[in-house]
Design goal:
Helices cover 43% and strands 11% of the residues. With 181 residues, the chain is of the alpha/beta class.
Length: 181
């Protein structure tokens, strides 16, 4: 359970970015070793890639922050393993509260399969969903993206990821929220 993740020296890694009405709510899976040490989301190798991709879409968590960046699970899992379905289930109410506290952004970007699972409430194929936005039952725009770690291992996927984020940036500049899907 989540108490197991909190044991020992494992500290909570909070989200960061625009605290009021961010343009996007970006969700990863869980902190890695570098994130756990820095107490910041996405600062390791994958994080540097994600932040570059975000920048290509005009999104940033620093300076003139315009998005909120967080993780489903706020504590680093043992051996950097993937969060379990039970951990995802237990973390969902906290993730929702975090989304509410920053102003319920209309655009939700789950990065990777774990984040998409948390948003949808059930396992959903990230490979089939990545780069394909849709409106949720509540009317929010969900724009799944591949996890940057996948792009680090697969150069062809990285090119597609870059295209997806640049397309997102074009949609944001064009007024995404008036778009119909």
């Amino acid at each position: 359970d989540l108490d197991e993740l909190r044991k020992g020296k494992n500290r909570l890694v909070p989200g960061e970015g625009a605290r009021r009405k961010p343009a996007a709510f970006i969700i990863g899976e869980a902190p890695g070793a570098e994130e756990a040490m820095a107490l910041r989301p996405f600062v390791g190798k994958s994080g540097r890639v994600l932040r570059q991709l975000m920048a290509s879409a005009g999104l940033t968590t620093t300076g003139e922050a315009n998005c909120w960046l967080t993780n489903v699970v706020k504590y680093r899992p043992p051996s950097n393993r993937t969060p379990t379905p039970q951990e995802i289930k237990w973390a969902r109410p906290y993730l929702r509260k975090e989304w509410e506290l920053v102003g319920k952004p209309e655009l939700i970007i789950p990065v990777g399969a774990v984040a998409l699972y948390a948003v949808m409430g059930k396992p959903t194929s990230i490979m089939a969903s990545a780069g394909n936005p849709f409106r949720s039952e509540s009317g929010r725009i969900v724009w799944p993206m591949l996890h940057p770690a996948y792009g680090l291992r697969n150069e062809v996927a990285r090119e597609g990821m870059e295209k997806d984020w640049k397309y997102l940036g074009k949609r944001l500049k064009a007024g995404l929220y008036s778009a119909r899907y």
